[in-house]
Design brief:
With 537 residues, the chain is an alpha+beta fold. Among the domains are: 88 residues, Leucine-rich Repeat Variant (Alpha Horseshoe); 213 residues, no CATH class. It has 29 helices and 9 strands.
């Protein structure tokens, strides 16, 4: 029925009269249903608001009839599309709806929760009003309802509330993470989607993410990444992206297979979403061996620590073998895995120019052949000794020197690395440099394909670049590591020309390639002819 018909026939006045004055529950219920149906039209909603239909609906929420309460709640939901009505219910209606969440009738709870979901969407004032009416506890309790609609509606309200810090902290304090496990495991995709969205809303700080780890909510969340439903995957990816805000939670997500699931999503044009790509890259930042193998790049903020290993380039969809498994693999000529693993009493020279120091970065790692002869318990101990990349605590990037004066660069550091790996190699003699034989001898001596970087005395581009990056990270000098083709790899540093110091207006740092092979200590401006000759065959 259109607005003109309602006005001309006086239907609205009759509906209100029935709703307000009748003592027959069915008449009140049907009047509320009629208002709901008519309120789907914007012009009708406007008319209803002008006639203060909201007051009638608030009165019906207090009816003794469950059917009338349900119909009135549904009418409130429909009227929420009108901004004026939405504001009206802030003071009258929301407290009554919260009370309905505490009834025994599950259908009444679902209808009330739907009204609250619509009232609080994009409306912080209403979300705050629902919290002030003590609605958080009943909403969390509703997450264990047997009605999927009730669960989805309650999760939506909690998500809307969580946009405000004070309300989010209140929600977190009432053990919401345990309550969300059931919805995350639900067979209903709408419930799954809404629960994942709630996780994304509440996991904004370390304390909340710690609770998620402890409650066991991360595993079912990661499982949702495999969903066939686009909205579920999108919201689960969003939640994983938020949860990957700290190292411990990121490691736990990886343990449950989040990286594999996200990679599978991103390989499909039809399944990937903007959150899945960001979540994947965010998790990679805590799993540097995989990041380097997959992307061939580590930035100055990616800090190499003990346990890092370079497996080489791997293609999308290919899994990176764990270090403990690689340590048990017999030596062969097909692959060499480079390991970074220092001892606490061995550190790079403070200025990277102490030629008398005999650092062997990782040289003290014992032969991995012994691992094969041990029991499973012994294997676990040795693999722990090598270190799990996802469990290593990355050093903070604060205070790191990411842009240096060109004249003050640690150029002796590059000469130090070169000296440890065979010295200067003239370009014309590069083909005669017998590094392959040297690496093979180390592998067969250790009876393993895993070679500690510090044991290499004759190394080329990618050996030297990895060692330089590891040492630079240890002493706080910002540098990146880039993998090229055919054994090439190089380090990039951002430098400010010393002659430009003190010049008003400032100058942007320029990127230089560090020469570790032909003229150790030399710096080549990125994209210059000499830099290209260094990077490419």
């Amino acid at each position: 029925m259109d607005t003109t018909m309602i006005q001309q026939t006086g239907v609205l006045k009759k509906l209100l009269a029935f709703a307000e004055n009748s003592t027959v529950p069915d008449i009140q219920k049907n009047a509320a249903k009629a208002i709901t149906k008519a309120a789907y039209d914007p012009q009708n909603r406007k008319l209803f608001h002008e006639q203060e239909v909201e007051k009638c609906l608030v009165a019906l929420l207090g009816s003794e009839s469950d059917g009338t309460k349900i119909a009135a709640s549904q009418a409130v939901s429909a009227m929420c599309e009108n901004s004026g009505s939405k504001d009206f219910f802030n003071y009258q209606g929301i407290p009554q709806l919260v009370q309905l969440l505490k009834t025994d009738n599950e259908e009444v709870k679902e209808a009330a929760a739907l009204a609250l979901a619509n009232l609080t969407t994009c409306n912080p004032a209403n979300a705050n009003a629902a919290a002030e009416a003590d609605g958080i506890g009943p909403l969390i309790n509703l997450l264990s309802s047997k009605r999927d609609g009730a669960i989805a509606n309650a999760a939506t309200v909690l998500t809307n509330m969580a946009t405000q810090v004070a309300l989010r902290e209140n929600i977190q304090s009432q053990d919401v993470t345990h309550a969300l496990i059931g919805p995350l495991r639900s067979a209903n995709m709408v419930v799954q989607s809404k629960a994942a969205l709630t996780i994304a809303a509440i996991a904004c700080d370390v304390e909340a993410r710690t609770e998620l780890r402890n409650s066991g909510a991360l595993e079912p969340l990661v499982e949702l990444l495999r969903s066939k439903n686009k909205e579920v995957r999108r919201h689960a990816s969003w939640a994983v992206m938020v949860c990957a805000g700290d190292e411990l939670t990121a490691a736990e997500l990886c343990r449950f297979g989040a990286l594999d699931n996200l990679e599978e999503i991103n390989l499909s044009v039809s399944r990937k979403n903007k959150f899945s790509e960001v979540a994947y890259n965010k998790l990679l930042n805590y799993y540097l061996p995989l990041k380097y193998s997959r992307t061939g790049y580590l930035s100055s903020g990616d800090i190499i620590s003990d346990g890092f290993y370079d497996y080489g380039r791997i293609n999308p969809g290919t899994k990176l073998p764990p270090l403990k498994d690689l340590c048990l693999e017999e030596a062969n000529d097909l692959r060499t895995v480079l390991l970074v693993n220092s001892k606490s009493d061995v550190s790079p020279p403070a200025s990277m120019d102490d030629k008398s120091s005999d650092i062997a970065y990782g040289q003290t790692v014992s032969s991995t052949s012994s691992l094969r002869r041990t029991s499973e318990e012994k294997t676990r101990k040795n693999s722990a000794r090598f270190g799990s990349p996802t469990e290593e605590k990355s050093e903070p990037t604060s205070g790191r020197t990411t842009a240096l004066s060109k004249s003050g660069t640690k150029e002796k550091g590059s000469r130090y690395v070169a000296e440890k790996m065979g010295g200067k190699i003239p370009k014309e003699k590069l083909q005669n440099f017998s590094w392959q034989l040297h690496i093979s001898e180390i592998k067969f001596q250790l009876k393993s394909i895993v070679v500690p970087i510090g044991q290499i005395k004759e190394g080329i581009f990618y050996h030297r670049a990895l060692l330089f990056k590891a040492l630079a990270d240890k002493i706080g000098i910002g540098c990146s590591l880039v993998r090229g083709d055919y054994g090439r790899a190089w380090n990039e540093v951002r430098l400010v020309n010393g002659s430009q110091k003190g010049v008003t207006g400032g100058h942007r740092p320029e990127v230089y390639i560090v020469d570790l092979m032909f003229h150790p200590g030399g710096l080549m401006k990125l994209k210059s002819k000499e830099a290209d000759l260094y990077r490419f065959l």
